[in-house]
Design brief:
Blueprint lengths: L2 H24 L8 H9 L1 H21 L4 H28 L5 H18 L1
């Protein structure tokens, strides 16, 4: 996949993540795990969305602009991969909200994801 396409994909996944997060949180299906972003979400949807879009745009542009460096190429690939995994979390959240997954599965999944994401925090 071309570097520019990866950068656009990263930004797009970031935007989808922001919109789904607002939907899940506002409807009581999930909470925002990032304390800074949760505080912005408490202020309102627009501040949360603006900061999330700005961060995603900045990251995408920086990684694309300096893609001639190996670290940027790997960083972009890693970021896209993590966002694809995060989209899986959103899918699980949606299936759970619709009642298609048993509560035990959701509890086990919540424990697994919090353990994995704790490594990155």
């Amino acid at each position: 996949m071309q570097i520019f396409t990866q950068a656009v994909l990263l930004f797009s996944l970031n935007l989808i993540d922001a919109l789904l997060t607002i939907f899940w949180v506002r409807n009581g299906y999930a909470t925002e795990g990032n304390h800074l972003m949760a505080a912005l979400l408490d202020i309102g949807n627009i501040p949360f969305l603006l900061v999330k879009i700005a961060i995603g745009a900045l990251a995408s542009v920086v990684l694309w602009k300096w893609s001639n460096f190996r670290l940027a190429k790997y960083g972009l690939a890693l970021a896209v991969s993590l966002y694809v995994l995060l989209m899986g979390v959103h899918c699980i959240t949606g299936l759970s909200a619709a009642g298609f997954l048993p509560e035990r599965f959701v509890d086990n999944f919540r424990f697994l994801t919090s353990s994995v994401f704790a490594v990155f925090l």
